[in-house]
Write a structure and sequence with these properties.
- Helix content is 49%, strand content 3%.
- It has helices at residues 2-6, 11-16, 23-34, 44-48, 53-61, 66-74, 85-97, 114-118, 128-133; strands at 101-102, 105-106.
- Helix 5 runs antiparallel to helix 6 (66-74).
- The chain is built from nine helices and two strands; from the N terminus they run αααααααββαα.
- Strands 1-2 form a two-stranded antiparallel ribbon.
- It is mostly helical and 144 residues long.
Length: 144
């Protein structure tokens, strides 16, 4: 959901037309490549809670020792970290004020550099459960 907001959508637009993941096709490819009995599904939320995070959890799943799994995970840079809840709602407010795309072209009135600054806003991390329960602040004109 956060990536869609970064792409210019609003929470309302996403909720009205939530894309359906194509899990069947993705799983079929894994089953074909590795065999059904060798494919194990795990919840991302469970894996991030493990010591060493997703990388270590994956290493353990493929029978790498715990010590090596932790060593590997400690050397992996953190990428694709979510923005804070506040940053996500500010960006969503900007999206409601000014579309990224107008008439098939990038909106000249939309400053695309704001995302980098917003990503630095600290606070509670964005997650799907909070997006459905938190009343976000009214949009503030941020000279988009």
């Amino acid at each position: 959901m956060q990536e869609m907001i970064k792409g210019g959508l609003t929470i309302e637009q996403i909720r009205l037309d939530m894309p359906i993941p194509h899990f069947r096709g993705r799983l079929r490819n894994a089953f074909y490549a590795f065999g059904r009995k060798d494919v194990e599904l795990a919840a991302f939320e469970d894996m991030i809670g493990e010591e060493g995070g997703v990388v270590a959890a994956f290493c353990r799943a493929i029978r790498v020792s715990d010590a090596v799994a932790l060593q590997i995970s400690s050397s992996v840079p953190v990428m694709n970290a979510s923005m804070s809840l506040l940053a996500t709602y500010v960006l969503e407010g900007i999206n409601r004020q000014r579309n990224i795309i107008v008439d098939g072209q990038r909106n000249p009135l939309r400053n695309m550099n704001k995302q980098d600054y917003l990503a630095r806003l600290e606070g509670d991390r964005f997650d799907l459960s909070s997006s459905s329960t938190v009343n976000y602040p009214q949009a503030v004109d941020l000279a988009c």
